[in-house]
Design goal:
The structure is a single chain. The chain has one domain (2-193): Nucleotidyltransferase, domain 5, CATH 3.30.420. A six-stranded mixed sheet has the order 1-4-3-2-5-6, with helices on both faces. It has helices spanning 61-68, 79-90, 100-107, 116-124, 144-155, 157-170, 174-193; strands spanning 2-7, 19-26, 36-42, 47-52, 73-76, 97-99. The chain starts with a strand and ends in an 11-residue tail after the last helix. It is an alpha/beta fold and 204 residues long. Helix 2 links the parallel strand 5 (73-76) and strand 6. The longest helix is centred in the C-terminal third of the chain and has 20 residues, at 174-193. Helix 2 (79-90) crosses helix 7 (174-193) and helix 3 (100-107) runs parallel beside helix 6.
Length: 204
């Protein structure tokens, strides 16, 4: 495993990508209050690129170019949260996207355990530690433990996605999943403009 930490942006936009795993770390879980602190990326080759976001930073051209590139699929776990953070911070909505949490809920109907730790253990045999999950991600200097934790959230997403895709295909739910993923940017936009908890399709 190779982890590289960058400050502010990627030094260059990687070429030849077709998909990239993405995760974020923030000061908390409340949209509009808690700022984006870190963006993690992995192309699935055992390496992870970490981009530390400064207080008040609103531009990251190379990172934003990847998020907006229609030829690069972005793999998330709980995409709705990460996409909103990225869009609110840099003004770019990630697309196209794939969400392993949504895929798991569609595919693994035999369980209600859809966390990344559960998926990693069951589908690819990797044990993830969540020890650093609640640490201070806004600190100017991240510890080695924080960096290792952040990287672990993206290093296995490609293999998890492949395992979930096999179940979705077997259960004839792959096309439904694809349509849900295509709708995610709209769902995130609703979150950002004031409808985070309202079922806008409901009768009342």
């Amino acid at each position: 495993m190779t982890i590289t930490l960058h400050h502010g942006d990627l030094p260059a936009r990687p070429e030849g990508l077709s998909s990239i795993a993405v995760d974020t770390e923030a000061m908390g879980l409340v949209k509009g209050r808690d700022r984006l602190c870190l963006v993690q990326l992995s192309s699935g080759d055992g390496t992870a690129e970490l981009v530390q976001v400064a207080v008040g930073q609103r531009e990251a051209p190379n990172l934003s170019a990847i998020m907006a590139d229609p030829a690069v699929e972005k793999l998330f776990h709980f995409a709705r949260f990460d996409m909103a953070l990225i869009a609110a911070t840099f003004g770019v909505m990630p697309a196209p996207v794939y969400c392993t949490k949504i895929a798991s809920k569609l595919a693994r109907t035999y369980t209600d355990r859809h966390g990344l730790k559960d998926l990693s253990r069951e589908l690819v045999g990797e044990e993830l530690s969540k020890r650093e999950q609640s640490s201070d991600w806004g600190a100017p200097h991240l510890t080695d433990a924080q960096k290792a934790y952040a990287a672990s959230d993206v290093l296995h997403l490609h293999r998890i996605r492949a395992a979930l895709d096999a179940i979705l295909a077997r259960e004839a739910r792959a096309e439904l999943a694809a349509r849900i993923f295509a709708f995610l940017p709209t769902r995130v936009e609703l979150d950002l403009v004031g409808w985070p908890d309202t079922d806008i399709f409901a009768h009342s």
